[in-house]
Structure formats: structure tokens, C-alpha cells
């Protein structure tokens, strides 16, 4: 297997994050109070929830040389988090900090409990065609933009079948009109962020054709938090699989994502 889990680097990145973020993992009253107090102190700092896809019993896509998506997602997400924290402009939370299984529904709940201003889900795809490569960006829509986006959403959503949960059956019970208005505003902001992501990723790395697409991703369903999902590349392409496992390439991806978040908040 070509991809090696680099625990030393992962620990270093965790250490670089502001000390308290790990406390968020414990859903006790104490940690909720802590999150609230941090919010008061850092009101000017936006809260970003970074969501490394898959984990634990769900490896995600598996590359031609055996690279597992769950590790590429976690390592790149940690690099993104470190980059954002070092700017001093953001408070960063993550849905997972280690190789653990978290349902898609719980990821959305974590973003809502953490009162995130933005949700970024980090993945790496595998395609049936080994020549296809490049990053792509997805936002939520009930009707998929194309067949490939629908198939991708089905693959990504299958994570919750492991726990037998289907979020689509559990829409929040709120005033319908208010819900629609919030949803529409969130969709517009999500689209704006997705455009910023495509622009910044495109400066530095290969993008898939028709790179911004939409489908019914369960993990993007928080009605009040602008959300996008990035597929960093294709593990089914041998060259890209190699790159996705390299720390240098993960840092480049992290720089692009961090720049897009800056652009979204500063110039949006
Ligand atoms: Zn995935």
C-alpha cells in the first residue's frame, strides 16, 4: 500500500490548532459552555466547520494503490484547519480529529451545535474511468445537475446506511415559509462559496471539467449554514492518488481552500 498514515504529522497539525478545539469533541454541558464562552471572546472570528469525509469502518473510496479516502480527507482537513487558525481570523472546528466513524446526520448536528458560519466537507473521489482526474466542488440541490453528480451523492450518502440513518426522513419541523427563506439564502451563500472554491483551486491544481455541480448530499443539508463539498481529486487515477497522499500537495490544497474562505468572507 503506497499511502502511509503519518501519525507524527497528524499530531503536529492537531497541536497547531488552538488548544481547545479538541474539547468540542465531548458533547457535555461543560464543552458547550466552553464553546459559547469562546464565541463571546472571539465574536469577530468566523466559525468554520471542516468535515473530513468518512472514517473508522467507512474507508470511503479506495485508490488503485490502496490509498483510503478517509486518511486523505483527514490529513488535508487538518492542514486546512491549521492554515485557517494561523491567520487569526477564524475559529476552526472539525467533525472528526481522528480515524473515527461519524454519521452524516451527526456531522450536520455538530456544525449546528458549534454555530458554524460555514461548512466545508472534504473528500477524494474514485471514478470508473482511470483517466479522469482533477478536483471538483459540489453544493446541495434536490435535483442533481447531472448523472455523475447524482451517482457521487449516492456514493457519499451511503455512509449513513452503515448506521441505518436517512436524514431526508427527518426534516426539521419549522415554519415552512421561514424555512424556505432561510434555505434559499443559505443556497445563495453556498453557491458563492463554491464559486470562490473553484476559482482558488483552479489557480493551483487540476480541476475536473464542469467542476461545480450539485446533488442531494445529506451532509450539506443544514438549512442555515452555507455548505459545500470538495472532492480533492480522483484516487482512481494513479498519478493523482500519489499526489493526494503527499504532504506538500495537501498543503497546496489547504492553501487554496483557505484563500477561498478568505475571499468568501472578505470580498463576498
Ligand atoms: Zn467521500
- What CATH architecture label applies? 3-Layer(aba) Sandwich
- What's the CATH class label? Alpha Beta
Overall residue-averaged pLDDT value: 84
- Distinct small molecules: zinc ion
Number of helices: 8
- What would you give as the CATH superfamily? Zn-dependent exopeptidases
- Report the C-alpha radius of gyration, rounded: 17 Å
Termini distance?
42 Å
Please provide the ordered H/E string of secondary-structure elements.
Answer: HHEHEHEEHHEEHH
Shape: globular
Category by helix and strand content:
alpha/beta
Count of distinct strands: 6
Characterization of the model:
The chain has helices at 7-16, 29-41, 69-87, 104-113, 147-157, 176-204, 238-244, 247-266, and strands at 46-52, 90-94, 118-125, 135-140, 207-215, 227-234. The protein has eight helices and six strands; from the N terminus they run H-H-E-H-E-H-E-E-H-H-E-E-H-H. Strands 2-1-3-6-4-5 form a six-stranded mixed beta sheet, with helices on both faces. The chain is α/β, with parallel strands linked by helices. Strand 1 (46-52), helix 3 (69-87) and strand 2 form a beta-alpha-beta unit. The chain has a single domain, classed as Aminopeptidase (3-Layer(aba) Sandwich). Helix content is 44%, strand content 16%. Zinc ion binds at residues 53-54, 60, 69, 123, 156.
Amino acid at each position: 500500500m503506497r499511502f502511509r498514515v503519518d501519525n507524527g504529522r497528524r499530531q503536529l497539525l492537531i497541536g497547531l490548532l488552538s488548544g481547545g478545539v479538541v474539547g468540542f469533541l465531548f458533547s457535555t454541558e461543560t464543552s458547550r459552555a466552553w464553546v459559547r464562552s469562546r464565541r463571546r471572546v472571539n465574536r469577530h472570528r468566523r466559525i468554520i466547520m471542516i468535515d473530513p469525509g468518512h472514517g473508522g469502518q467507512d474507508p470511503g473510496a479506495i485508490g488503485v494503490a490502496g490509498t483510503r479516502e478517509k486518511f486523505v480527507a483527514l490529513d488535508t482537513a487538518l492542514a486546512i484547519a491549521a492554515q485557517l487558525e494561523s491567520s487569526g481570523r477564524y475559529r476552526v472546528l472539525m467533525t472528526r480529529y481522528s480515524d473515527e466513524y461519524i454519521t452524516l446526520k451527526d456531522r450536520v448536528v455538530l456544525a449546528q451545535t458549534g454555530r458554524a458560519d460555514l461548512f466545508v466537507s472534504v473528500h477524494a473521489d474514485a471514478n470508473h474511468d482511470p483517466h479522469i482526474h482533477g478536483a471538483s466542488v459540489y453544493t446541495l440541490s434536490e435535483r442533481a445537475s447531472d448523472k455523475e453528480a447524482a451517482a457521487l451523492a449516492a456514493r457519499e450518502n451511503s455512509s449513513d446506511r452503515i448506521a441505518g440513518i436517512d436524514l431526508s426522513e427527518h426534516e426539521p419541523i419549522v415554519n415552512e415559509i421561514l424555512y424556505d427563506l432561510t434555505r434559499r439564502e443559505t443556497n445563495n451563500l453556498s453557491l458563492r462559496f463554491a464559486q470562490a472554491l473553484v476559482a482558488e483551486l483552479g489557480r493551483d491544481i487540476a480541476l475536473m471539467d464542469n467542476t461545480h455541480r450539485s446533488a442531494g448530499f445529506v451532509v450539506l443539508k443544514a438549512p442555515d449554514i452555507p455548505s459545500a463539498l470538495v472532492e480533492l481529486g480522483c484516487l482512481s487515477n494513479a498519478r493523482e492518488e500519489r499526489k493526494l497522499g503527499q504532504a506538500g500537495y495537501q498543503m497546496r490544497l489547504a492553501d487554496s481552500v483557505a484563500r477561498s474562505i478568505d475571499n468568501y468572507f472578505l470580498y463576498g
